[in-house]
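To whoever is on call:

I kicked off a structure prediction for a single chain this morning and the downstream step that reads the tokens threw a length-mismatch warning. I double-checked the sequence; it's 610 residues and nothing unusual in it as far as I can see. Pasting both halves so you can look.
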Amino acid sequence: MSAVLFVDNLGLKEELIKKACSLAFKAHKSPEKSYLSEKIKISSEPILFISFPGLWDHTKWFSKKPFGVTKIDLNLFPSLRSVGNDEAALVNEAFLLRFQNILDNSSLKFEVNKAMEEGKQIVFTGHSCGAAVAILATLWALEVYLNPNKNHKPPLCVTFGSPLIGNHIFSHATKRENWSNHFIHFVMRFDIVPRIFLAPYSSIEQLFSSILQYFNPKFKPSTQDSTRRGTSTCDFYSTVMRNTATVASHAACNLMGSSNLLLETVTNFVDLSPYRPFGTYIFCNGHGQMIVVKNSDAVLQLLFHTAQLRDLAELSEVANKSILEHLVYEVEMKDSFEMLNVVYLNQLEELPLSSDGSNSDIGTIGTALNGLGLSTRARLCLRAAGMLEKQKKKNEEKIDKEKALGSMKELEEYKATCEIQKGYYDAFKVQKETRDFQANVKRLVLAGIWDEIIEMLKRYELPDEFEGNSEWVNLGTSFRRLVEPLDIANYYRHLKNEDTGPYMVKARPKRYRYTQRWVEHANRIPIGASSESTFLAEVEELWSWSNNKKPFEDIKEKVVKLEHDIKKWVEKGEITRDVFLKDSTFVKWWETLPEQHKAISCIATFIGNQ
């Protein structure tokens, strides 16, 4: 493969990767500094490199048992969540705290902002746990400088021997935001560090501090240390890989849609690591070949299968490699770029199964799989990862979008006729005419289609990009604005007991909660800011409050806010003026408000003009 093709596929120049590696190891040797920065030109393009050092105190890796994770700070990383499911990512707490400390107590913000405003390319890099900080810095920069209202050059992150830093939502969210390609992770075949967090801290606690010192550039081993190293590395490698095997096997069963009773029994008693890979991984086999993988499920399988023992007699040799390979990335980059033997594992579902030359196991892909020592079972797991990705796309294709659009068109026509007379909401609420019944049928048809979509999203059975797809965001918003008022009308038409509770608390379906979150996230507006489809539910509750003879002063603040929101939504065309018809629910409620308040209301002119 030529250097040009390598650049075209990854979007990275060879010189950039080499420089990133060099600076990552320069920082590795300077742990007393928060970070290093250096400006250079590559092919006449100005680039700012920022590299972070590793630290060798175990408390800088694990903050607590069992896995040292915490919920991500959504104020700092608002995109790192499942939008519809409203589930925040889990992140390594020690790494997060270290990044926050650097952000608050160094000139990092200033340097990044200056480079962004000057249109420079920024490359964050690091080795070992310095790579973890580089990842968080890149995500922060993407959040701040690459939102829909800004047009800066996206930062890149190039890491070497990085540990995993968070759970599956990192992969899910970065794919949804189209950020995944900005993260390139180089991993040596046997390097133990990318696998460490697949083991609970309690299983490696006694050995971890001593193992970290082998990576410390200032560590000078004594003769006694050298003697102990063989035993400790074997024990450490065996423990980490045993846990990696459990996590990978459990994930493989899920990929293949089967259940392993033994594994299910084990997971009832043993917490599995939540950590998962994300971004593009480049596995270096130690012989100058680089294997590129973008499927995060496949990467997890490779983290186990590429480093497992073929024979127990290899334990000492492989365990030693698992430590040494963490420190040889500079040499490996030099050798790999001299050979430029790069293989892309893209069509995973079509990978050859045999490793002995049969079953079409020929060509560069077969050679690469053999070079990584992948067994038939490993290849089956990779195939399953590819098939799952393909199945998610098929699930999206099976959604009956045409049926949904057809039903929405008929409801639009129904709404247009209602707006002339009684109003959309109130006509549906009284259910006096045949067309009202037919509209209810269409409402239920659409509910079924969207409920199916939401169930697939809850199970992560649709592509990760789905909730960020502007076509689906816009369709979901149109559906919500058109149909939710009918759900609200239906709820309050049948409401017999006020103790049943408000619609927003007791009855609002997930299909509306999800689609509202989509548009709020896409537009980077506060949660709840796009609640135009539910304002009549609030009106119904405020009217109930008034009917119960509650003082106006108790609800005045809510009323004023609602009126200002309604004014904004009407002016933006997000709700229609039929709500202001003389006998509408809204106007009947508004007329019960004190005259003094109505005289100064910001929506008084809307009502008077109907």
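Update from on-call: the warning came from a stale cache, not from the record. Cleared it. Sanity check on the structure: The chain has two domains: 17-345+358-394, 400-608.
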